[in-house]
């Protein structure tokens, strides 16, 4: 169970990994706090983007824009502001559906006339982070902080190796997604998914 309730607390877990004193706030004047304040958000988003964390999953029906791409696809759709990684596209895993859509900045280009997605959102509430995420985040954050605070590149690389050994991107991990279509937003597979997996689309 996750007992981390603040960004400062999570940063202190990372600082403990490299033998540093606790900070009381990310806004304090210490070198550790300033480095943690700079690195926290980008490192958090990086770890969130590595896998479909259950606590960060979200669904959305995308809004089609009036103006589409100049070539290649028929439509642009606006991606949610908290979007980090696609998991399912119209009831099909993103990896299987990828030839049918392309991310371009904050837009999604596709020929589909309707788009609904499951995606990893930018979760900022630390109380929602699960234990594996906290461990991974603290480890990689410690690795990133080490050169700024101690200059010990050996320790930084050791922590990076430990992070890599957590196998966060492997399909065998607890909440990794499979290639199978799931039930759509209407309680059934979408026409896109039915066609993709050989079903009758009527």
Model description:
The structure is a single chain. This protein is an alpha+beta fold. It folds into 2 domains: 85 residues, no CATH class; 87 residues, no CATH class. The protein is 35% helix and 17% strand. It has a 4-stranded antiparallel beta sheet with strand order 1-8-4-5. Strands 2-3-7-6 form a 4-stranded antiparallel beta sheet, with no helix packed on it. It is elongated and about 55 Å long. The protein starts with 6 loop residues before the first helix and ends in a 6-residue tail after the last helix.
Order of helices and strands: HHEEEEEHEEEHHH
For the secondary structure, the number of strands is: 8
Any idea what the radius of gyration is?
20 Å
- Biggest β-sheet: strands ordered side by side in the sheet: 1-8-4-5
Roughly how much helix do the residues carry, as a percent range?
A: 25-40%
Q: Which structural class do the helices and strands define?
A: alpha+beta
Count of spatially separate domains = 2
Mean pLDDT across the residues is 87
Measure the end-to-end span. 47 Å
Question: Which secondary structure elements does this structure contain, and how are they paired or packed?
Answer:
Layout (H helix, E strand, L loop, with lengths): L6 H11 L13 H18 L8 E5 L1 E2 L10 E4 L4 E7 L2 E2 H4 L3 E4 L2 E4 L5 E6 L9 H19 L3 H12 L26 H6 L6
Antiparallel strand pairs: 1-8, 2-3, 3-7, 4-5, 4-8, 6-7
């Amino acid at each position: 169970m996750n007992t981390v309730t603040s960004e400062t607390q999570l940063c202190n877990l990372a600082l403990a990994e490299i033998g540093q004193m606790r900070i009381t706030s990310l806004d304090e004047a210490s070198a550790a706090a300033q480095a943690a304040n700079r690195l926290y958000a980008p490192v958090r988003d990086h770890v969130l983007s590595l896998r479909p964390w259950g606590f960060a999953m979200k669904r959305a029906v995308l809004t089609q824009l009036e103006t589409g791409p100049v070539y290649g696809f028929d439509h642009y759709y606006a991606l949610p502001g908290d979007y980090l990684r696609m998991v399912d596209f119209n009831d099909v895993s993103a990896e299987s559906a990828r030839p049918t859509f392309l991310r371009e900045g904050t837009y999604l280009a596709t020929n589909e006339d309707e788009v609904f997605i499951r995606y990893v959102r930018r979760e900022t509430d630390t109380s929602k982070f699960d234990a594996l995420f906290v461990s991974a985040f603290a480890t990689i954050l410690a690795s990133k902080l080490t050169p700024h605070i101690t200059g010990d590149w050996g320790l930084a690389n050791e922590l990076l190796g430990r992070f890599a050994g957590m196998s966060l991107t492997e399909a065998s991990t607890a909440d990794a997604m499979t290639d199978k279509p799931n039930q759509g937003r209407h309680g059934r597979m979408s026409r896109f998914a039915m066609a993709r997996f050989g079903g009758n689309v009527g």
